[in-house]
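The following record pairs a protein chain with its ligand, protoporphyrin IX containing FE.
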Amino acid sequence: MDNDEAFQAPIDRILWAHIAFMFLAFGIIFPTGMVLGLSRSRWHVPVQIIGSIFTIIGYFLGHAHGGREFPGDNIHSLFAPFLIYTLISQVGIGAYLKLHFTSGPNKWFRPLTTKIHKIIGIFIPILGYVQMVFGVITIDGWCRGENIGQCLAHFIMGSSFIAYGIFLILMLRLASGWLQRKGKSQDYYDSWIIMAWGFVNTFTEHRGNVWSHRDLQHTSLGILWWAGGTVGIYLSRNGKRNIMPALIILFTGYAMSSHAQSSEISTKIHAMFGYVLMSASVVRLAEIGFLSEKKLMLIFSGLLFMGANIEQISLLTEYGIDPFSYALVLASTSFLIFFFTNILIDLYWRSGQNDGEPIGNNDIIAHMPLPLTDPHISSSNSEDDHDVLFQRAKSNDDDYDYKA
Ligand code: HEM
Ligand code: HEM
């Protein structure tokens, strides 16, 4: 390339200033202003106006930079107009809302626009995050040509873990009342997300004709997620908590911690990522407070054992399939066996002459009652908390009694 030099040139001050203004606007000011909008604070409008001014300055700086050059079709400059138009509409709607017209057609138009303003308002920090990631990959020329696949995989997967973490925090801090009203446990929603994500990963992680290690590993993780997610949804019926999401995170962490990479640094970073995931899982198991799915573990170990016969192993070597992808597929199979067995038991109790499971036999699927209030953050009286903890301890005991 003849203009290689321009692509390697240092980043000039104008571009650094662009980054600083945009980061402050989309990373700090707009999210803060969004929360002030949701809480109906009188600071909402001033804060968003400051964010908009920062954006205008950042916009001109982004166009005015010298120094390093970038390919014309870079994703950051392609996505920018979309984000800017979204913001302009949002500010326009905001201005209309601020004028407080209430007569005539405004009677229905105002509530409608408020709703739209709210939805766009929640999307802006998310789109801003995406645009910032695009900025980072543009600045170093990452994710172009043949690197696009692994690049997408890492940024999307990584972002989805971040989103999941944030989502869990929001659920815990804001939505425990909502969960209680819906009669669903957190694990129910988690399992849906994991399942949906698993389907996406199962069908999108393989490119070209040859199945590379990376394709295999990512696809087998996808299978693990949808299979395990399905079981998690099933076990969450009637607001029960269950450890499926935690188990899936544990297996994912294990696979990541042993994910062979092209360089030592990369292997170490993946290992760290895996350990962090595994510790997240352990914390979650502790939060749920019991270890019940020993039956599932038995099925899984049975499959691993069956799958470890010498001919199979030599087949794996022949096809170049790594042990972790293989183990994940076996884990997925054990989820499905576990699921199908439970479905059949349910069918038995709900068909023919049976009209439901006999009361008192519910510990076939061990569970604990939903902790309706989080003892760490709730201000309810201590007797209630004591009850929740007591029930939790009790369901633990039930689980260790082998009558099922
Ligand atoms: C500078 C331009 C803006 C103005 C003048 C403005 C004005 C307003 C007004 C007057 C409300 C109250 C609506 C009502 O309660 O009837 C509101 C709510 C809200 N605004 Fe803005 N806004 C602006 C920009 C933004 C931006 C950039 C965001 C997001 C990043 C945002 C997010 C929100 C949210 C989430 C609500 C709460 C809506 C609800 O809970 O129903 N606004 N805004
Ligand atoms: C969400 C906030 C951001 C917005 C809305 C934004 C918007 C823009 C716009 C409108 C341009 C001019 C594009 C063009 O020349 O056609 C630009 C350029 C650029 N921005 Fe951003 N930006 C943001 C954040 C960032 C961040 C965080 C980085 C880097 C870490 C970054 C790196 C760049 C680079 C490298 C260019 C030059 C691209 C080129 O010359 O084609 N931006 N940005």
